[in-house]
Design brief:
This protein is mainly beta and 295 residues long. The chain has one helix at 272-283, and strands spanning 6-11, 13-17, 21-27, 38-46, 56-61, 64-72, 74-79, 84-87, 92-96, 101-108, 114-122, 133-137, 143-146, 152-157, 159-160, 167-168, 182-188, 194-197, 203-214, 219-221, 224-228, 234-237, 247-254, 262-264, 267-269. The strands form six sheets. Strands 1, 13, 14, 17, 19, 20, 21 and 23 form an eight-stranded antiparallel beta sheet that branches. The chain is globular and about 60 Å long.
């Protein structure tokens, strides 16, 4: 067993999206700050409703998937098909935009606090024009394994082959057999070290959102992403020596598509011509036709 080395540490960039929701963007604020197959990683966290309550009014997507994970608070959503839901704390929504979907997401407060993530996961060219669909995964269906001293692993997608008890995620989107995404919320307490097996085929990073990570030559504070090289079998997660409360991080790993990317806002395709077609379809009201199915 060998540990993957850290290749770079990047601070997330403060920005706003939707109707003024304040967030930190760890992936996607520049085209070169992507990690194939992941296009974007947004972290939102505030106890001030003014930072998020205006939400994300109706907007389109085409060509990729969104994975929304709510840590605290909840978020209502609905789409052009008439589907509605309320994503609660600890739950996940996995939405495949495919050919097109128009939806809205409206954050809700619980004692003022809202905290969570949205991940954009690319679709291969052959899957970009499939009908849209989504799955809501409540917290009770998220595979959770306790660690010693109070830590835990919440496995949102993929498999972690623990020798004693392999962990299986609750489900993936259309990419399960292609990019094999591994997404997990991992909390490690002070004085502990956890090694997470990651396939050699996968690129990987950690986004620190509580405490400090031991980054080898430096402590990595919350609000930073840690990128790993391709050599090695495991990602090692340990709090820095002065992190009395441990560390909590979101692990993203996936098999690259190695396909060209053309992006214009909420449309992610392979060519500029496909982007222009998406814009034209949206303007003409046919972005999401034929009607998508929901699951």
């Amino acid at each position: 067993m060998s540990v993957r080395s850290i290749t770079r540490i990047l601070p997330a960039q403060a920005t706003q999206d939707g109707a003024g929701v304040r967030l930190l963007r760890a992936l996607g604020y520049q085209h070169q700050v992507r990690m194939d197959p992941f296009l974007m990683l947004d972290a939102f966290s505030s106890d001030d409703p003014d930072d998020y309550i205006a939400g994300f009014p109706p907007h389109p997507h085409r060509g990729f998937e969104t994975i929304t994970y709510i840590v605290d608070g909840h978020m209502r959503h609905r789409d052009h098909l008439g589907n509605e839901g309320d994503l609660k704390a600890g739950g996940v929504q996995w939405m495949t935009a495919g050919r097109g979907i128009i939806h809205e997401e409206m954050p809700q407060q619980e004692n003022g606090l809202l905290r969570g993530f949205q991940i954009w996961l690319n679709l291969p060219a052959a899957e970009k024009m499939q009908p849209a669909h989504y799955r809501d995964i409540p917290a009770a269906e998220i595979t959770t394994a306790p660690l010693a001293e109070g830590g835990f692993i919440k496995l949102i997608a993929g498999t972690i082959p623990w020798a004693t008890c392999p962990l299986e995620g609750p489900g993936q989107g259309a990419l399960a057999s292609i990019t094999q995404p591994l997404i997990a919320d991992i909390c490690v307490m002070a004085g502990q070290t956890v090694d997470i097996p990651v396939p050699a085929t996968h690129q990987a990073l950690l986004y620190v959102f509580e405490g400090q990570l031991d980054g080898g030559q430096q402590a990595v504070p919350a609000g930073h992403s840690v990128w790993y090289g391709p050599q090695g079998d495991v990602i090692r997660i340990a709090p820095s020596l002065d992190a009395a409360d441990g560390v909590r991080a979101l692990l993203l790993a996936g098999r690259p598509l190695n396909e060209p990317i053309a992006q214009y806002g909420p449309f992610v395709m392979n060519t500029q011509q496909e982007i222009e077609q998406a814009l034209q379809d949206y303007r003409h009201g046919v972005l999401a036709q034929p009607a998508a199915s929901s699951i």
